[in-house]
Amino acid sequence: MLRQGLAAVKSRACLPCRRWLASAASEKHGHLPSSQSPITSKLKFFKSVTEDGGQIPTYRVLDGVGKVIDGAEVPEIDQAFARKIYENMVLLPTLDTLLYNVQRQGKISFYMTAYGEEATIIGSAAALANDDEVLGQYREAGVLLWRGFGLDNIMAQCVGNEEDTSGKGRQMPVHFGSPKHHFLTISSPLATQIPQAAGVAYAISRSPRRGKNCAAVYFGEGAASEGDFHAGMLFASTIPSPTLFIARNNGFAISTPANEQYHGDGIAARGPGYGVWTVRVDGNDVLAVLGAVREARKRCIEEGRGVLVEAMTYRVGHHSTSDDSFAYRSRSEVEDKKRIDNPITRFRLFMESRGWWSSDEEEVLRARLKKDVLEAFKRAEGLPRNELKELFTDVYGGEEPWNIKEQREELAGLLKKYGDSWEPWKNELARFKRKGQDILQKTD
């Protein structure tokens, strides 16, 4: 009956239609016009991107005790490179511990740690080229450390002293930025960096850097619930632009666990919907992250389109110094994760199995890093802030607008009235270079 019907229609159809009908007749049901979607007579719903309806697998190289699992291929890595990765992984919690504690002492206003996510951050940083553009969320200080940003710059930004090249002391701690290190300044609003990254990558594709670099954007699984995530993915897949999306799925969006954030199969399930290459990787396995991000970067640059990497990890620390995570999860859960699935321990055991590391070297490294971090903080703490006039710079180009002049004059009036008589202001002004005299002289 189907063939008879097709034959009858074919006799009255135009040439393109007759060609399509001929194709349809040669197959069981054919395809939709202008589409590769095959026609089926079976009604079937689906909610998984895998053929068998199961969850997306997670790529792993090392097991929990640092042994290469059966069938896994260790990414190209030598002893010197491995030691650099490990040193940076150990440096992150050393830095976090000091800055978290000094925030509790009131010496800085805010801080966010990367406890438990060292492999995801350092492994991905090691897989990128140092001149790939990076747009971080707020746990990516390790990317800057990998690129040679240095402890002094980290401390200067968190303390807000005169050496802060990220924002001249005008931004919250952990909001780093460095044009020299191809790291765009972090901003507080959640997920805004995702569509921005697609725009940066598009600019790369229109420049001599096309085919050489990508824009890598980091975000948590909570940020992927924002509309900006979908806007960035759509942009990078359709315009297109070489954007490498790195989702840190650490289990919690502040206090909201991942199982309450989405009903589908994580963040990786969304990639195929935008037609981009996607991989899910064990974010606590630094070698798996290194290998996955290397390959993702290669595809991103060669095809000039977005690629999505979902790194499955666990946020061992509190969301920030404003959070007490034990209000929504048990201490035993956190301690179990620290003990059973520690990314630093896993990689150290791998290195020891290769003869690349020893317990003596471990002791020396930790003592040196602790000393370096403490000295860097003490130095930063002793430096003054920028001149107070910097509060009004770097916003507008050309002639200074009236509203900025008005605000500066208002501040000068308040300084004249209270600066020498009100103790809180006197103490605060003493921390600035020239103690606010630059503002008073500017308006005299």
Automatic annotation (TrEMBL):
It catalyses: N(6)-[(R)-lipoyl]-L-lysyl-[protein] + 3-methyl-2-oxobutanoate + H(+) = N(6)-[(R)-S(8)-2-methylpropanoyldihydrolipoyl]-L-lysyl-[protein] + CO2. Signal peptide: none annotated. SUPFAM superfamilies: Thiamin diphosphate-binding fold (THDP-binding). Its cofactor is thiamine diphosphate. Its EC number is 1.2.4.4. Residues 87-385 form the Dehydrogenase E1 component domain. One of its GO terms (molecular function) is branched-chain 2-oxo acid dehydrogenase activity. The keyword Oxidoreductase applies. One of its GO terms (biological process) is branched-chain amino acid catabolic process. Keywords: Oxidoreductase, Thiamine pyrophosphate. The keyword rRNA-binding does not apply. Belongs to the BCKDHA family. The branched-chain alpha-keto dehydrogenase complex catalyzes the overall conversion of alpha-keto acids to acyl-CoA and CO(2). It contains multiple copies of three enzymatic components: branched-chain alpha-keto acid decarboxylase (E1), lipoamide acyltransferase (E2) and lipoamide dehydrogenase (E3). This is 2-oxoisovalerate dehydrogenase subunit alpha. It comes from Gloeophyllum trabeum (strain ATCC 11539 / FP-39264 / Madison 617).
